[in-house]
Amino acid sequence: MATLTELTLGVLGGMGPLATVDFLDKLIKATPVSVEQDHLRVLVDSNAKVVDRNKAIAGTGPSPGPVLAHMAAGLERAGAGFIVMACNTAHAFDQSIRDAIGVPFVSMVEEAADACVREHPAARRVGVLGAPGCIDAGLYQSALERRGLEPLLLGKEAQQRFNGLLYRIKLGTPLAEIAPEMKMLGLALIDAGADLIIAGCTEVPLVLGPADLPRPLLDATWNLARRCVLYARGLEPLPT
């Protein structure tokens, strides 16, 4: 049920567009309601024009930081009480966002790492299915290691296959064609010893679900959606 002090959520999206729709769908499903008006107020800037995050991290393209900062400031001016971003890799530029706004920015990466500890306390080795920029920036490696967990990554060849799948999803390849290949990559991490897999790219949950793997799959998108409901309704304090 909505509260009088409920915060408006701002979403930086469009990276890619289908992943943003997936986040919004999960946000709706994660929100307990008795009437339509109980749903959160959500402001979305779905900007597919944001430059390629992977190229920026690799040093072969411009930084998306200034555009992300501009988008975030616009959401704050429009009334957002806190802001999230439906793209894992773009969190490599989250300092630009934080510097541009006066409201909290909630990190999808940090929230997912917290969920590993909170929901899977027996897990010690965590496999990461992430985009090349996310991996190269060490986003999940750092977050997991700070919580005493060991990150496991795909090998070079498998990571290259993952990268190809990622861009095929972004370009509209039928998801059913990609799902079996993504499942094989998840299984490869489990074979390497992972107790738990993080879907650390917002395109991954579009083609891989918990029922597809013999070990738990933590969907960073679904986890962020659930946390947003708690933060917006004041049921848990926003992270500082």
Describe this structure in words.
The protein has ten helices and seven strands. The chain is of the alpha/beta class. Helix 1 (17-30) links the parallel strand 1 and strand 2. Helix 1 (17-30) crosses helix 10 (220-232), helix 3 (65-78) packs parallel to helix 4 and helix 8 (156-170) packs antiparallel against helix 9 (175-191). The two termini are 25 Å apart.
Which labels suit this protein?
240 residues; alpha/beta; Rossmann fold; four-stranded parallel beta sheet; three-stranded parallel beta sheet; 10 helices; 7 strands
Task: Please provide a brief summary of the model.
With 240 residues, this protein is α/β, with parallel strands linked by helices. It is 46% helix and 12% strand. The chain folds into two domains: 9-108 and 222-233, Rossmann fold (3-Layer(aba) Sandwich), CATH 3.40.50; 109-219, Rossmann fold (3-Layer(aba) Sandwich).
